[in-house]
Amino acid sequence: MSAPEPPRSASSAGDGPRPPAAQTRSGGRVVVLVSGSGSNLAALLGAHQDPAYGARVVGVISDKPSAGGLEIARAAGVATAVVAPADFPDRESWDRAVAEAIAVFRPDLVVSAGFMRILGAATLDRFTDRVLNTHPALLPAFPGAHGVRDALAYGVRVTGCTLHVVDAGVDSGAIIAQQAVSVEPGDDEETLHERIKVVERALLVDWVGRIAREGIRVEGRQVTVG
Ligand code: GRF
């Protein structure tokens, strides 16, 4: 569901054409994409039990039949689908199948929460500015599949997590929210990632609810919620 654009004041003579204004989009139907254990999904499912939260997980999709997140979804009575790359001849046909599987749920938002695949044009063009990803580092530092490991190896004293809009790059879309987490002496990838995930889940739940209730507007790299 999308809200109508607010009225804009008429431009004065000589102003040249303006680019079309970004739409504010809101609505509470959420599809979650998972590849792993699904603790972020579980946090969203915990929050969505309260109708005042505004967002509701209506479907969960995985690239892996064995993903723990699928079990969590089934236990919560949420519909699931698996779209495994091995079942498709190439990346494009897999991506089209992902877009179709998402569309079945008519989502307002798509949340990639530990989904370890790059989404392609079929999905991103169909759900423009509605696909969000949570990443366990302070982007633009340490993008990619090993954000926690790479931050530790670099020796940073502070890392964290980022919620961002997904674009065609790797963890490169406009940033919605971030939160810092200190690296403690003796941290390894597992202990640091677990501490990040505590903060990450809270950030995700908070912002998905806000976006569902108040809407999101993406203009270039600037994101406005509410
Ligand atoms: C999260 O830290 C996410 O940012 C990263 O993988 C982790 C997924 O955790 N890409 P979970 O499956 O939600 O428990």
What is the compact description of this entry?
This protein has 226 residues and is of the alpha/beta class. 31% of the residues lie in helices and 22% in strands. The strands form two sheets. It has a seven-stranded mixed β-sheet with strand order 3-2-1-4-5-6-7, sandwiched between helices. Strands 8-9 form a two-stranded antiparallel ribbon.
Residue-averaged pLDDT = 91
Number of DSSP strand runs? 9
Helix content: 25-40%
Gyration radius, rounded: 18 Å
User: How many distinct helices?
Assistant: 6
- Which strand order does the major sheet show? 3-2-1-4-5-6-7
Instruction: Provide the low-confidence segments as ranges.
Output: 1-19
Q: What would you call the shape?
A: globular
Strand content: 15-25%
Order of helices and strands: EHEHEHEHEHEEHEE
**Distance, first to last CA:** 15 Å
Describe the largest sheet. Answer: 7 strands, mixed
The small-molecule ligands in this entry are: 5-O-phosphono-beta-D-ribofuranosylamine
Task: Quickly give the structural class.
Answer: alpha/beta
Note the main attributes of this structure.
single chain; 226 residues; alpha/beta; 7-stranded mixed β-sheet; two-stranded antiparallel sheet; 6 helices; 9 strands; globular; disordered N terminus; binds 5-O-phosphono-beta-D-ribofuranosylamine
Description:
It is a single chain. With 226 residues, this protein is α/β, with parallel strands linked by helices. It has six helices and nine strands; from the N terminus they run E-H-E-H-E-H-E-H-E-H-E-E-H-E-E. It has helices at residues 39-48, 68-75, 91-103, 121-126, 147-154, 189-214; strands spanning 29-34, 56-62, 80-82, 109-112, 131-135, 158-165, 175-182, 216-219, 222-225. A seven-stranded mixed β-sheet has the order 3-2-1-4-5-6-7, with helices on both faces. The chain has a two-stranded antiparallel ribbon with strand order 8-9. The longest helix has 26 residues, at 189-214. Bound molecules: 5-O-phosphono-beta-D-ribofuranosylamine. Residues 34, 36-41, 69, 113-114, 134-136, 197, 200 line the site of 5-O-phosphono-beta-D-ribofuranosylamine.
